[in-house]
Amino acid sequence: MSAEQSGRRLDTPQGGRRFSVNMDTDVIGVYAERIARFLGTGSYLLIQTVIVIVWIAINLVAVSLRFDPYPFILLNLAFSTQAAYAAPLILLAQNRQENRDRIALDEDRMRAAQTKADTEFLARELAAVRLAVGDTVSRDYLRKELDDLLDELTERLTADRGDLSRPVDDDDAGHRHDRGTRRRHDG
Question: What's the predicted TM-score (pTM) here?
Answer without folding.
Answer: 0.47
